[in-house]
Amino acid sequence: MWKQALAVAATVRLSPVRRQLSISAAVNYDLLHSVDENFREVCKIAPSPKKVTPPLPYSIVKGALERSDGQVLRREYGDEEISISVMRRALAIPSRSGDTKDGADDLGHDFINELFLHVSVSRPMRSNSLLFLCGLYPDAVGIHSVCLLSKLTPGLYQGRVFLELDQKLRDQFCLYLEERSVDERLFPFFQSWLYQKDHHNLMNWFSNISKFINDIKPT
C-alpha cells in the first residue's frame, strides 16, 4: 500500500514538469514550422536581376555579399586603388501644401531613396588615403565630406567642412571623382546590389534562427 501511495505521489509531482516540457516542445515545433513557412516564401522571391554586374571598370570585391559591411566595388586608376562601400538611407520629406504627385502616400510625404557611398582612394606604400562620403542619386553624386586618413596618425586634422570650402575647390573635387568613374551610373547597380544583399541576409537569418531552435551548431 505504501509503495502504491509513493508511486502515485511521485507521478503527481512529476506531472507539472512533464507538462511544461510538452508545452515547450510544442511551442518550439510551432515556431519552427512558422520559420520554415516564411523561409520557403522568401525562397520563392528571386532577387532581380539574379546577376548584378557593376559598370566598367569596377569589379565586385570577392565575398562582399557575405559580409555585413565593407567594400563592395574596387578598381585601379593608374597607381591608385579606388574602393567603394555603400549603405542605404530613406529620407521622408514633407510635401508642400497642395503639391501632390502620382503615387504620393496618405501621409503627405515624398520618399526619396538616397544611397551613401564611402569612396576610398589609396596608393601602394602610402600610409594615408583620401576618403569621400558621398550621396548617390539616380541623376547625380554629391560630396558630403572629404577626409585625409592616416594609419600612422589617426588624429590627423580632417580639414574644413566641405560646404565651407571655396566653390571652385568643391567643383574640382567633384571632377576628381568623375575622372575615377564615381558618378550616377553606379546608382542602378547599387540599388540592385542592396536588394540582392537584403534577400541574402534574410534567408541566412531564417536559416540561423532555425538552427538555433534546433540546437544545431553553425557550420
TrEMBL record:
Gene3D superfamilies: Mitochondrial glycoprotein. InterPro entries: MAM33, MAM33_sf. One of its GO terms (cellular component) is mitochondrial matrix. This is Mitochondrial glycoprotein. It holds the Pfam family MAM33.
